[in-house]
Amino acid sequence: MANHTDIDANELQALLSSQKVILVDVRNDDEVARGIIEGAMHIPMSVIPGMGGLLSEHPDTALVFYCHSGIRSAQAAGFLAGQGRNNVYNLRGGILAWGNAGYSFTTKTE
């Protein structure tokens, strides 16, 4: 069975700097309104199961999930990895860890 990999904020920054990444914020709308990681797409946790096909495209591209603290995003990453998607990552500690590492946020654009 496939599994996802937990990465920390510095590892995510290195990944974003070195290759194409599909970055998915699974938080609720009110959480996302406070800021997101630049380049992230917002797909609320509740719709991830229905997005499995779309998120399974481009299997060689790293797929990274994050949420507030890393719990919901670990579930999303585990779900997609369980569906056979490779290169699936979870930001350990979520956006809190990203901010605590000194990285910035941006506002969501539609």
Task: Explain the layout of strands and helices.
Layout: E1 5-7, H1 9-18, E2 21-25, H2 29-32, E3 41-42, H3 52-55, E4 62-66, H4 71-82, E5 88-91, H5 94-100
Parallel strand pairs: 1-5, 2-3, 2-4, 4-5
The total number of structural domains is 1
Estimate percent helicity. Answer: 25-40%
What is the 3D shape? globular
Spans of at least 5 consecutive residues whose pLDDT stays below 50 are none
- The beta-strand count equals 5
CATH superfamily: Rhodanese-like domain
What is the name of the CATH architecture?
A: 3-Layer(aba) Sandwich
SS-based class: alpha/beta
Rg on CA atoms, Å = 13 Å
Strand order of the largest sheet: 1-5-4-2-3
Q: List the helices and strands in order.
A: EHEHEHEHEH
The proportion of strand residues reads 15-25%
Biggest sheet details:
5 strands, parallel
The number of helical segments is 5
CATH class: Alpha Beta
Determine the N-to-C terminus distance: 35 Å
In words, what does this structure look like?
A five-stranded parallel sheet has the order 1-5-4-2-3. The model has no long low-confidence stretch (mean pLDDT about 90). β2, α2 (about 30) and β3 (about 40) form a beta-alpha-beta unit. It has a single domain (about 5-100), classed as Rhodanese-like domain (Oxidized Rhodanese, domain 1). Helices cover about 35% and strands about 15% of the residues. The chain is built from five helices and five strands; from the N terminus they run βαβαβαβαβα. The longest helix has 12 residues, at about 70-80. It has about 110 residues and is of the alpha/beta class.
